[in-house]
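Archive transcription. Copying these from loose printouts into the bound notebook so they stop getting lost. Printout 1 of 2:
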Amino acid sequence: MKPDVQTLYAVTEATWPPARTEVLGPVTIREGRGGGKRVSAATAARPITPEELTKAEAAMRALDQTPLFQLREGDGALDALLAAEGYEVVDPVNLYVVPVATLTVDRPPRVSTFAVWEPLEIMREIWAEGGIGAARIAVMERVTGPKTGLFGRHKDQPAATGFAAIHDGIAMVHALEVQAHHRRAGMGRLMMLQAALWAQSEGAEFLAVICTKGNQGANGLYSAMGFSHVGDYHYRQKE
């Protein structure tokens, strides 16, 4: 059975984990340590009161983090409260999933893609060019389940890198980065095929990925590869 959006929320957390969490009533505070919105955003288990919001904001500021919430399916009341309090919508994303077996009927050309952990220095350099620095690599290192780096070559040159990890039989790809001068050459597709082959070798049944709604190219790629749109989420941030 295809994973639902709540399952993918849990997979996202496990495969791209915060440094630490703290529960304040219905609110979970995440300490990201510079690892980006996904590991720094608070979530709420139920609608919260203005007083609970004030406490959550204080806790985030104590971590030197801007107040930030991730809004998931069913969070309409919280979304409305945050909007009224001046929080702006940031980075709405889509969550996609596909059976691994759908992708493993095809294979990348020989010596074009690899699954490797620890990350090679060239992988770190490609990530750095795309704005994925040490703090986000530290997120990858925190993952406790099966994980791998993804490395791709185009015309015998280093071209792309990514990260994948598995939770509850679902592999999720993160931090996929293709160098600018190797884009529009099919590297994104080949990297996802490599991720599927690795996931299959680890016994995972599904491959998932998160993509910002504004990235038309990547959204189109995942749809063309047979990924199903399962749900979404967005952030609200208070400057």
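Printout 2 of 2:
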Amino acid sequence: MTDTPLADTDFRILLIEDDPTNRRIMERLVERIHGCHAISFNDPLDLIAALDTIEFDVGIVDYQLPGLNGIELIKQVHQHPAHVDKPMVIVTADKDRDIRLEALTSGAVDFLNKPLEIVEFKARVRNLTKLAEAQRKLSMRAEWLKEEVDRATTELRKRGEEIVHRLILASEYKDLDTAMHTLRMANFCELIAEELGMSMDFRHDLKMAAPMHDIGKVGIPDRIMRKRGPLTPEEREEINRHTEIGAGILKGSSCRLLQVATQIAATHHERWDGSGYPDGLRGEEIPLVGRIAAVADVFDALTTERPYKSAWSNDQAFRFLAEKAGSDFDPECVAAFLSKRTEVEKIQAKFADDPMLVAGNG
């Protein structure tokens, strides 16, 4: 086996032959072909043990081997993730048609006959290195394309996140809720999604999009948004329109973040029993992101002091969620949130409101 560093254009030819004389002949023939280097084994089990560490471009396998035959060996080599597509050749003196058919169906791409004929051996190896070279180029191009797609995806995500951030800033000029509310609510959403076992991508998009849940309030008149006393039924109906306004602002985008934000804006006031608005959706008709956002938004609203209301204690708010699970809220989302009480309190401490800003709001 060679340990000499090879150039990128060189080829490693794997040889598995238990007969020492035949193995040495094949090694010498390989080394006489420009750019080819031999890696040889006499025991197939040694090769199997080394599959994690060796690199090769083409394999030449004797059919008659100790322990298992060449066809069985090729099957095991091709099961290894690093060697799935490596061209493999069977060397055999057996002319049996069934053996050759089995070899082809098991992954062999060609045959060499014993006794080896020098010209034929070199020609087959050269042809196989051309196949290996084509596979290299395809692999390199696939890797390059993947890198380009990843780079473009990252750039699109960055642009989407910037748009989301600016929309959130715009909504904060109109909404009485503080910026800390949107940060707490977004982090609460992430906690619930994590406890529900959602993917990292789902959790990231939810956390980024959740702060836009009330963006539709930019379309509600100031006389209603800044009113300190109770709302009339007509005013309540008007403010409830913020879900449809928000969805209207966000919908139609090809950006995944804005698509998630559209769902949240439209459905975070829907209720599990169908009593919510704007569409009276029930149960799993409500998108999961909307069901999660409903729990997070209500909890933060209850536990936050505003000029027009006092804050509830966490105990009161947790009890309220537990009582309303199955009516107002998805029971699984509530259970997930209740199980994260320690983390919830850490988020509240990290993103606490400035008392001066709360007092002066409005």
